[in-house]
Design a protein that fits this description.
Strand content of chain B: under 5%
Distance between the termini of chain B: 57 Å
Structural class of chain A: mainly alpha
Shape of chain B: elongated
Helix content of chain B: over 70%
Distance between the termini of chain A: 89 Å
Strand order of the largest sheet of chain A: 1-2
Largest interface: A-B, 9 and 12 residues
Number of helices of chain A: 25
Largest sheet of chain B: none
Radius of gyration of chain A: 31 Å
Oligomer: heterodimer
Number of helices of chain B: 3
Order of helices and strands of chain B: HHH
Amino acid sequence: MPSHLLWLFPLLPFIGFVLNGTIGRKLPRAAVAGIALLFTAIPALLWVWLWFSMRSQEILQLSTTSRAWIETSALTVRFALSVDHLTLIMLGVVTCVGFLIHIYSTGYMAEEEGYWRFFAYLNLFMFFMLVLVLSANFLLLFVGWEGVGLASYLLIGFYWKKPSANNAGRKAFVVNRVGDFGFLLAMFLIINHFGSLSFTEVFGAITSHPELHGGFLTAIALLLLVGAAGKSAQIPLYVWLPDAMEGPTPVSALIHAATMVTAGVYLVARSHVLFDRSPFALGVVAIIGAVTALFAATIGAVQNDIKRVLAYSTISQLGYMFLGCGVAAYSAAIFHVMTHAFFKALLFLAAGSVIHALSGEQDMRLMGGLRKRIPITFWTMTAGVIAIAGIWPFAGFFSKDEILWQTFSHTENPLHYLLWAVGLITAGLTSFYMFRLWFKTFFGEERFDEHALGHHGTSAHHGEDDQASAHHHHGVHESPWVMLGPLVILAVLSVIGGWVGVPAAQFGHDEIGHFLAPVFASGGEAVEATASHGTELALATISLLTALIGFFAAYTFYYKKPGTLGAKATGNPLYRLVSSKYYVDEIYQFAIVMPIMVTSRLVLATLIDGGIIDGSGTFAAFLTRLAGNGTRRMQSGNIRSYAGWLAAGAALVILLMTFTALAQHLK
Amino acid sequence: MVPIYAYLILAAVLFTIGIASFLFKRNIITVFMSIELMLNAVNLTFVAFSHVHKAVHGQIFVFFVMVVAAAEAAVGLAIIIAIFRTRQTLDVDRINLLKN
């Protein structure tokens, strides 16, 4: 495939955005959907072509550049796109899963107002995400990075009439910004030390100087981590993701599960050369990943909103990916990115299907017994739940297990056994809360009132309390095929998607590991060939058992004896702590937001902006008025006063002349 | 010989009287006369210095001053007559239509 066609990848969704954004309002819904789907389908097809051409010709990298964007004596930056095997995988996830979600959205958003706006923003997101993934230098990546943050803000706040949605969008953008600040500082350091932002130049400089170690490289790596933590919702910048569920469900699926939140992982993987030279930074990455995974899993286990459970699950799984990166198992992390995209998008879309079936209900306490009513949604969601729980042979098992195995055998980090244990416990918790969700939603007695559906105020499906909403489908109904089709495809992928990474210990060929090896082969890779397969199999069995224990726990408490945990939990202080999300939002509000707001209002707004800046303007006006008033007296209309001023002026001039003449004379 | 300072003091006194009456008198004609007085005081100073330095420059300048004085008197008196025709008064304080 000729390399200049790479520009089509971002360009096509951008055209879709422009079209839908400008004339979409006047077009019929079918046309809007058609434009959006067309400009997303073509990149997906292009990716297939790219895949085949790169595989058949064994090309490792394809790139294209343009004229200079920034050109100074100190720095030159170009618009440059490049594709290697890592990009190829990310590209596949973004375009194909993105396309499936676009199809789903045409059904899900069919009755929403602002249909054209939704698809315009969705295409805008695709544009920026593709720029991010294809970029060959840090600056263009940052453009994509910021852009997906913007698209995320626009889409979270899609139901702009709801104040909670607006606040959530703002929160997402501001927290992301904090991370972006770290990213910017990292870029400044990179420019300072390497004089370039291009990946090939920076990473080439690092590899050709084997003595470079720690020091400023650690600083750069940690700052990049700050940026990644903001975008990929890790501690301490994860707080925006649960609130982001205010957006429509396809947005949660695409942006906050499959693609945007993996940008941080992609950044770390792309900069692996940098991270490999700083064991300290890698350790921090691993610890943050593991802690976030466990932390989010505990919160997710006590949530009642189906989307919140999935949101915390996303944070937790992202923690796994960071853990993978932190033990230098980058291919395992990217493998998990891929499988996670499949099953998490599936879970979100299926949850959307459930919400659609119940005309807007999202609280699991008001669900139950749905498996007979919406069978296709049930079966596809089951595939997703089994996949994320990490049960063999579904996709999640292989990727999660690979990360856990790499953590266990990564002897460079002194904490690696502890991290492995944390990962294992989290896996058990993941299985537990996912099956809890499964049982509460689809099994048991029906806790919803079929005839009251869509009429009461908890209709979070639509943005406003719309009595005239066309959502008066009486009773529970299965979703249309335009929504179920993508679910089925993603369910199939969730089953078979892991089979490209079956490790040798389980008699597989680990195709994905070998596929990504040329990208990550810069040394520092975890030991692979000589490690004992016995240990690996043992660990795999342990992970599987933990997942099954989680299943049985959920089975006991949510199927056999429903309500027992609920009875024990209310009043329990530990439960209160976890269900209040450890009061993190409140802590941030008190320690960070309030001081900033107080400083802004009292000091900056009144003192400096009102006082000094406005004051200097007011003062200048006062001086002018004063001068004007004084000079006014010269024009009184009274002739004798004119005479007086004349005489005074003449006297002044004479005095001046005398004294200057005297001064000169005396010199 | 009369010392130079005698002329200068006389001229200064004349000039001061001219300024004072220019500022304090109410009759326009009197004001004009005081202007002429001031000009003549200056003329006297010029001539005195010209005599002291035995040079003619001062007296040449006196010519110029006299020409200006004459022209100015002519124009000024014409204006006064025009004003008198409309306002029927020679009181400076009463010619105050431009006062706000």
